[in-house]
Design brief:
The structure is a single chain. By secondary structure, the chain is α+β, with helices and mostly antiparallel strands. The protein folds into two domains: 110 residues, Phosphorylase Kinase, domain 1; 122 residues, D-amino Acid Aminotransferase, Chain A, domain 1 (2-Layer Sandwich), CATH 3.30.470. It has seven helices and 14 strands. A hairpin with a 4-residue loop joins strand 2 and strand 3. It binds uridine-5'-diphosphate. The site of uridine-5'-diphosphate has 13 residues, from strand 9, helix 2, strand 12 and strand 14.
Length: 260
């Protein structure tokens, strides 16, 4: 598999072509943006952790039959993924009210929702990703109602699975955003999950302390973003490579000490 030219650079990722027309490489950058690009920064190591966390989650989803674009992680920052036509909608699922929902509707922050709430936003930075209804989606043919029904069902299943996965490691899944796309393979168009699932795209609170372990640390200037993301990765039982690196460093250090 040969890496080709840069096709697109987004806020947090770069997309490269490959020698296979149906596959692309997704590169995770360290850049962080918030409030529709008004707040920007580079946080060293963020891309590496998100690459690992998203890989872990998408592989687990494949195991339970939630189809997604991930083929495999290639290295610290890159994944080989299926090329899809991204549906221009951000699908948000909420279990606890916070963020834009509380501001928009005056709902008290932290209100536990009786059942998951699905929201749709048009993926358009110039318009500030406005909230849209099901009717908007079908009226403007962004998706037909059968495909929207399929995605709604998929989102509920995804939410149930992710809630359990995070709860098992002492984390509340407050809300998240995902994207879907149409595959090109074998002539048939199939909807699969794309993009990433990471602390950049989810709100994750510690079960006991409600400590934020997600991108709100950047949005709200709380600091310690890397330790928080690392904590998520450790609790999920990943970051083995990093522990190997640490082990190598420890070995090297002890041999240096012995030589002295
Ligand atoms: N989100 C995202 N990308 C966006 C907007 C939102 O990944 O462009 C995620 C965000 O991290 C949160 C969920 O979607 O987990 C809901 O975000 P909200 O609508 O509250 O937006 P915000 O408060 O970030 O404006």
């Amino acid at each position: 598999m040969k890496k080709g030219k840069k096709l697109y650079e987004g806020k947090a990722k770069i997309i490269y072509s490959t020698s296979d027309k149906n596959l692309i490489i997704q590169y995770f950058k360290d850049d962080a943006t918030a409030f529709n690009n008004q707040k920007k920064s580079t946080i060293e190591g963020k891309g590496v952790i998100n690459n690992r966390i998203s890989e872990h989650i998408l592989l687990s989803l494949s195991e339970i039959g939630i189809k997604n674009h991930l083929i495999k992680r290639l290295n610290m920052r890159e994944q080989l993924v299926k090329l899809v036509d991204i549906i221009p909608i951000e699908f948000v699922v909420r279990n606890i009210a916070t963020g834009s929902l509380t501001k928009r509707l005056g709902i008290e922050d932290g209100t536990v929702l009786e059942k998951p709430l699905i929201e749709y936003c048009l993926k358009d930075d110039k318009l500030g990703d406005p909230l849209i209804s099901r009717e908007h989606i079908t009226t403007f043919n962004w998706l037909d109602s059968a495909n929207l029904d399929f995605i709604d069902k998929n989102l509920k299943r995804l939410n149930d699975y992710l809630l359990g996965m995070f709860r098992a490691v002492g984390i509340k899944l407050v809300d998240f955003k995902v994207e879907y796309g149409f595959t090109h393979e074998s002539g048939k168009k199939e909807i699969i999950l794309a993009d990433e699932i990471s602390p950049d795209t989810c709100r994750l609170w510690d079960v006991i302390t409600d400590k934020k372990l997600d991108k709100d640390r950047f949005r709200k200037n709380l600091g310690d973003l890397i330790p928080a993301y690392t904590e998520v990765a450790k609790r999920l039982g990943i970051l083995h490579e990093q522990s190997n690196i640490t082990a190598v460093n420890v070995t090297k250090l002890s041999s240096i000490k012995k030589k002295k």
